Structures are given as structure tokens and as C-alpha cells.
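Give me C-alpha cells for this 228-residue protein.
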Amino acid sequence: MDTQDIEAFFATLRSANPDPRTELEYTSVFELLCAVLLSAQATDTGVNRATRALFAAAPTPARMLELGVERVTVLVRTIGLYRTKARHLVETSRILVERHGGRVPRDRAALEALPGVGRKTANVVLNVAFGEPTMAVDTHIFRVANRTGLAPGRTPLAVEQGLLARVPGTYLVDAHHWLILHGRYVCQARRPRCESCSVRAWCDTGRPGVAVPPRNAPGTARRTRTRA
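Here you go.
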């Protein structure tokens, strides 16, 4: 995918969805942080089902801390790795109260110092809550970036760096959402919906006349797991 293709690719995605949003439900930066932390190896739908009750009981770090690990564990038990995530939520809340005045910091190092928060989660919070032009590479973005030729890479970090270098600045703040939604609903893992893809004309593997490679075909970059 060359530079001209990238411009057309994102212009098309923006035309179809001018104001993309995360599908996680939240009403504050703290709730967003909790929802993203819970979303590792879980669907947004599943996270939203759990957080409705969780956020009603603990909408702030102080309230989450008061709730305690045992009660938080019960409230998030429908989510994968819920015991570990419950401990991370409570410990993160403690750190926010003790070191940050109960507020979520707008600083990558401070975010990544929180239990259960890695580069991807920090990128989501910085982008969604604070409007920073970051790129949180999840499985969907990793797949789309490699399959389309937008930013091929063998690791999430390599893909992130490629995207930050190649996505035009005018699209960068919202690119994270467009790529996730495109991967979730169109450029799917098992069977990409190339026949209904609005950006197929600029895709290295899906454009007309090019055969779409089978999943995990030789030469196709595979996702490397990283801490959320």
C-alpha cells in the first residue's frame, strides 16, 4: 500500500464513520481505564455486561478500593481471567488514590506503572480519554495492518510504529477506532468480507484480482501476544 493508497483508504473510512467511538461503555476516564483493563482477552460486549453493575457500585477509585477484591471478583466473574483482573482493579485504584489524587494520569509511564496496564491499554486511555494520537494495536489492528499492507510487522510494537509513521496526521487520532471496527466487522480473521469492503481497492491482498491468502498462510505475519 503506497502513500496515495493510504490517503484514500482513510478518507473512505472517515466518510463512512466521521466520528468513530469505542464500543466500551464508560462515563469517566477511570471507568474507561477499568473497562480497557478488563477487555484483555474478552469482548467489548462481555465487558459492558459486567461493568454496568461494577460501575454502579464503584464509579471512582476510592469506591473501588472500598469494595475490595472479593466483591469486585464477584462482579467481574463473567470475564476471562477475572480473579487477576479484579486484583489489578483494586490495586490500581489504591495507587490512583495514594499517588494521583484519585485521578487517572495523562502520562504513559504513570499509566504503565499501574497493575495490569501495559502499552496497549495506556495507548487506548491516552487516545480515547485525552485525544492523544496513539495507536493501540490489538488483534484486529495487527491483522488489518498486515493483511492490507498498511503497516506490516511481526510484533504489535512494530505495527504500532509503522502505523504512526504512515497514517497521515489528519486521520491519526481516529485511526485506532477505524481500524479496530474494520477488523471486527469486515476484515475478519476467519473469513474477511472482501466482497463488501469499502477499502478493498487499496488493500494489498483483497483488492480485485488478488487472491486473499488463507489464515496463517506462509508469509503472513502472526500476532505476538503482549501485555495489555
